[in-house]
Design a protein that fits this description.
- The structure holds 2 protein chains of 2 kinds.
- Chain A is an alpha/beta fold.
- Chain A has 2 domains: 89 residues, Beta Barrel (Elongation Factor Tu (Ef-tu), domain 3); 158 residues, Nucleotide-binding domain of ferredoxin-NADP reductase (FNR) module (Rossmann fold, 3-Layer(aba) Sandwich), CATH 3.40.50.80.
- The radius of gyration of chain A is 19 Å and the shape is globular.
- Chain A has 9 helices and 16 strands.
- In chain A, strands 6-1-2-5-4-3-7 form a 7-stranded antiparallel β-sheet, sandwiched between helices. In chain A, strands 11-10-9-8-12-13-16 form a 7-stranded mixed β-sheet, sandwiched between helices. A two-stranded antiparallel sheet of chain A has the order 14-15.
- In chain B, helix 11 links the parallel strand 1 and strand 2.
- The longest helix of chain B is centred in the last third of the chain and has 21 residues.
- The chains are: A alpha/beta, B alpha/beta.
- The complex binds flavin-adenine dinucleotide and FE2/S2 (inorganic) cluster (FES).
- The site of flavin-adenine dinucleotide has 42 residues of chain B, from helix 11, helix 16, helix 18 and helix 20.
């Protein structure tokens, strides 16, 4: 059992942060790696990137958006409750080095949680780091203060203009690409269309671009192939070969299709869960 | 005397009728009742030089356990089995007896072999029905400790053998449940998970420690385990899926057998939405391959509501690698076999869901390196099979997670760990290996046999130092 020692709701309760006791994972985890989390006996295995780790306290931090039955179930867990299973650290750590030009780290929605440790690692490695984060609207923005600490320049965008730049993270990226400072590296995590757009923009400039993919997974050890994604025409397993890949080579359309595989079942599970919760509240 | 015994026919196994069982996940063979088991045991000639024993990878004293059944002393029967196998309830169900013990039975020469596997299952089930099995007395702790990576049949065998020698044993398992392929691969209708649970529970009672959610190579490395254990045994199985590499293979609804069976068995997707893991329920299912894994996938799809399940296999019936009983059961349940047929590409709809497989007919040509006749495509014979779900079950490979993170471990060119077959020793000091990660995907009993050899060698090393 993996106990929740701290919990915080963000973005009007649509996003939840959990700090979980998992000393072995905390001791090993590096930026870019993820865990697989399962709430209880009947639960599903859900991959989540670690937003932070504290080896001394023996804890890891996960941040998830409440999108379906499994994350709705996670949300019911309070401090003192526990996840039945947490597995990790999985995946390859981000390749961090010191570049001559600036490094731009882009996070959209809960993708901000994914880029946060990567952003900090690039900064700690001596890079000049620009962070661009975005959300649909001001109330849904997460980790602004953390990203401010982790970067040298922070740009905030909202789709509806309620805060920061009015527009998409890619609009701000364009300004940097047009600017005079050379860009050595771009990292992006967030909705697939956002990552696809980022990669399309940096490609003509030949700027190396890493994207962190959120494929559907089961084991997380390269055993099932369910997380396969086509990269440069060959199949790679997101859980062991990734989660980060060269954005210029990823087949984003294929990834998006595979992410929709269980949409119908997800809806069915969610409805059942909502119904059960209602019944429980009635009694 | 021999004549008289020959006249009793091999006793058939009571089974759920095909039309009933094809829609449920309950076990298919129901097991012998005692009087049938005793009658079947009576067919054994009790040979002085029993050939069957030489066909058993772990050398069970087959005539002796059968004699005990015949005499109605079921306790002694199970005790005889347990001298050599830790998992008789499992082996009685999943061993390919027809190419092992039963193939060598003298009765097989002139008629039908004694049903050794069914009798093994009978003895094990009687024992299980009696509730908690007697715990053997444990020797004084030796103070030595062993780490085992992987909790499949090889790992469980080593755990059982070494705990009985007084060594401390910890099993590290990547999944959240112990049992390896026995829990995530082989379906409930062939091997009830309660049986595996009992075997694991028995080892726990003996004092074996199971550390779940431990991905060795990631959570900890083999070298870290060596820092706190005197010896390490690696038994991580053949956990790498094989795909066909043909166009369209990433369409929605196309699974590796590993994924499909793990979803259904380990994650219990067949009970969705009571369990949260979803699975595609195909109406027209195609399974590629003809081994045990393919039969399991095909029969699972049927139980998940498919109207038509087709096995596509590029060679002919004679080459199908599955156990005879599995093929027989699959046919009885109405699974269609398209033999000498290979997929060349998958086609999908605009949403990216598979809707057809394009296949080509094959003929058998000259024998290849494996001695089997090579399938050769017949040009122009392409045709389509309509489908909404496909499972690829064409074998498994070596997962590199351990081998790539353990310096000093030698592997062959296919990535399997190289060991001394007499001892199970790898090239790395204090590290042994066995099971599918050494041989490639094989059988439960061979994995157990490899575990037995390694356990003997590990015990010798721990007590004598070599
Ligand atoms: C669907 C299916 C049906 C089969 N049917 C039959 C049959 O009818 N009869 C028969 O005899 N054989 C059958 N087999 C083959 C048989 O199951 C295997 O040969 C046998 O299980 C191999 O045992 P093992 O101990 O080597 O490995 P496995 O049973 O594969 O167990 C390996 C374990 O190690 C764990 N592991 C892997 N990597 C790590 C890691 N890095 N860290 C920690 N743990 C790890 C895995 O999660 C797994 O639990 C079948 C196989 C499959 C897949
Ligand atoms: S999740 Fe199974 S291979 Fe990646």
């Amino acid at each position: 059992m993996y106990e929740i020692v701290y919990r915080q709701e963000m973005a009007q309760g649509t996003v939840v942060l959990n700090v979980i006791k998992a000393p072995k994972i905390a001791a090993k985890a590096q930026p870019g790696q993820f865990v697989i989390v399962k709430a209880n006996e009947t639960g599903e295995r859900i991959p989540l990137t670690m937003a932070d780790t504290d080896p001394e306290a023996g804890t890891i931090t996960i941040i998830y958006q409440v999108v379906g039955k499994s994350t709705a179930l996670f949300k019911t867990l309070q401090v003192g409750d526990a996840y039945q299973d947490v597995l990790g650290p999985l995946g390859k750590p981000t390749h961090i080095e010191r570049y001559a030009g600036i490094v731009i780290c882009i996070g959209g929605g809960t993708g901000v949680a994914v880029v946060h440790p990567i952003t900090r690692a690039f900064k700690n490695a001596g890079n000049h780091v620009v962070a661009i984060i975005g959300a649909r609207t001001k109330d849904l923005l997460i980790l602004e203060d953390k990203m401010l600490d982790a970067s040298h320049e922070l740009q905030v965008c909202t789709d509806d203009g309620s805060y920061g730049h009015h527009g998409f993270v890619t609009d701000v990226l364009q300004q940097y690409l047009n600017g005079s400072r050379p860009v050595s590296m771009v990292v992006a995590a967030g909705p697939v269309p956002m990552m696809k757009r980022v990669a399309a923009m940096t490609k003509p400039h030949s700027i190396p671009t890493m994207v962190s993919l959120n494929a559907i997974m089961i084991d997380g050890t390269g055993m099932c192939g369910g997380c396969r994604v086509s990269v440069d025409g060959t199949n790679r397993f997101t859980c062991v070969d990734g989660p980060e890949f060269d954005g210029h080579q990823v087949d984003f359309d294929g990834l998006m299709q595979r992410l929709s595989a269980y949409r119908q079942q997800e809806q069915q599970a969610m409805e059942l869960f909502a119904h059960e919760c209602k019944l429980r509240n009635l009694t | 005397m021999g004549d008289k015994k020959d006249r009793i026919p091999r006793q058939p196994m009571p089974e759920q009728p095909p039309e009933q069982r094809r829609r449920n996940f309950d076990e298919v063979p129901l097991g012998y009742p005692p009087e049938i088991a005793q009658r079947e045991a009576g067919r054994c000639l009790q040979c002085k030089n029993p050939a069957c024993v030489s066909g058993c990878p772990v050398g069970i004293d087959i005539p002796r356990f059968i004699r005990h059944i015949r005499e109605g002393d079921f306790t002694k029967a199970i005790a005889t089995l347990k001298e050599k196998t830790a998992l008789p309830a499992v082996c009685g169900r999943v061993c390919p007896q027809e190419v092992q013990c039963e193939q060598r039975c003298v009765l097989a020469k002139s008629g039908e072999a004694v049903a050794i596997g069914r009798l093994e299952r009978f003895a094990a089930d009687i024992d299980r029905a009696h509730g908690s099995p007697l715990l053997p007395e444990l020797p004084k702790p030796t103070g030595k400790s062993v780490g085992i990576v992987g909790s499949g049949p090889a790992g469980l065998t080593v755990a059982g053998d070494l705990i009985l020698k007084g060594h401390a044993v910890t099993v590290y398992e990547a999944f959240h449940k112990a049992g390896g392929v026995l829990v995530y691969g082989i379906p409930e209708f062939r091997l009830p998970k309660a049986i595996v649970q009992e075997e694991v529970g028995y080892l726990e009672k003996l004092g074996v420690c199971f550390e779940l959610n431990a991905v060795i190579g990631r959570t900890e490395t083999v070298d870290e385990l060596l820092a706190r254990h005197d010896a390490v045994f690696i038994a991580v199985g053949a956990g790498l899926p094989t795909f066909l590499g043909v166009p369209g293979e990433n369409l929605i609804g196309i699974y590796s057998a590993n994924e499909y069976l793990t979803r259904s068995n380990l994650m219990k997707a067949y009970l969705f939405p009571q369990y949260d893991t979803p699975i595609v329920r195909g109406t027209n299912v195609v399974v590629v391959g003809a081994g045990n894994v393919a039969m399991d996938a095909a029969r699972t799809a049927l139980r998940l509501g498919a109207e038509r399940v087709t096995i596509v296999y590029r060679r002919s019936r004679n080459e199908m690698p599955a156990r005879a009983e599995e093929i027989h059961h699959a046919e009885e349940e109405g699974i269609v076999f398209e033999l000498l047929t290979a997929p060349v590409r998958f086609l999908g709809d605009t949403a990216g869901r598979v809707n057809a497989v394009e296949c080509i007919r094959m003929r058998l040509g000259e024998p290849d390196e494996s001695g089997r006749r090579r399938p050769v495509p017949i040009e122009g014979s392409n045709f389509h099979i309509e489908t909404d779900m496909v499972v690829i079950a064409v074998g498994a490979g070596a997962n590199p997670l351990i081998t790539s993170t353990t310096p000093g471990l030698a592997v062959n060119k296919r990535g399997y760990i190289i060991v001394d077959p007499q001892t199970g020793k790898t090239r790395k000091p204090r590290v042994w290996a066995g099971g599918d990660i050494v041989t490639g995907q094989a059988t439960v009993i061979l994995a157990m046999g490899a575990g037995r050899i390694a356990a003997t060698s590990i015990h010798q090393y721990l007590t004598l130092g070599w």
